């Protein structure tokens, strides 16, 4: 399956950590999509919004949406619409586990440490080779 051009734009926005723009792009796709793409877009969208919440130090929003996004994407492994879903899930699960371990009280320090390491949110969407 060849990914939708707007989805690829959302992937690029995600990887540039422009999570608000990514949300707008993916939400427009999600609203119009039919299954099975609808659930896939929603899962990626939830992970993007979780990262947006994290950038605003909203620990609860980040944790809840990471969990929901991970749950929605599990059935799309290993690759779907040219995306390495297995890798995205691994990175998202690692981020969720870290956030759960630190708790809401330490979210500012956590985000500051990530930024200092230039890791930011350690989650990216890795495209696989897409065939025409």
Features:
single chain, mainly alpha, 2 strands, 6 helices, 3% strand, globular, 132 residues, 66% helix, two-stranded antiparallel ribbon
Give a short summary of the structure.
The chain is mainly alpha-helical and 132 residues long. It is 66% helix and 3% strand.
Describe this structure in words.
With 132 residues, this protein is mostly helical. It has six helices and two strands; from the N terminus they run ααααββαα. It has a two-stranded antiparallel ribbon. Strand 1 and strand 2 form a beta hairpin. The chain is globular, with a radius of gyration of 14 Å. The N and C termini lie close together (8 Å).
List strands and helices in order, with pairings.
Layout: H1 5-15, H2 19-32, H3 37-55, H4 59-73, E1 79-80, E2 83-84, H5 85-102, H6 107-116
Antiparallel strand pairs: 1-2
Helix pairs in contact: 1-2, 2-3, 3-4, 4-5
């Amino acid at each position: 399956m060849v990914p939708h051009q707007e989805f690829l734009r959302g992937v690029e926005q995600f990887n540039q950590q422009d999570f608000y723009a990514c949300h707008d792009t993916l939400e427009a796709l999600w609203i119009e999509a039919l299954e099975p793409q609808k659930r896939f877009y929603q899962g990626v969208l939830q992970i993007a919004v979780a990262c947006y919440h994290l950038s605003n130090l909203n620990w609860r929003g980040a944790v809840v949406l990471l969990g929901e996004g991970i749950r929605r994407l599990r059935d799309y492994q290993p690759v779907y619409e040219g995306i390495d879903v297995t890798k995205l899930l691994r990175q998202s699960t690692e981020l969720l586990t870290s956030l759960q371990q630190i708790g809401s009280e330490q979210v500012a320090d956590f985000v500051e440490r990530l930024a200092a390491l230039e890791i930011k949110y350690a989650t990216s969407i890795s495209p696989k080779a897409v065939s025409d």
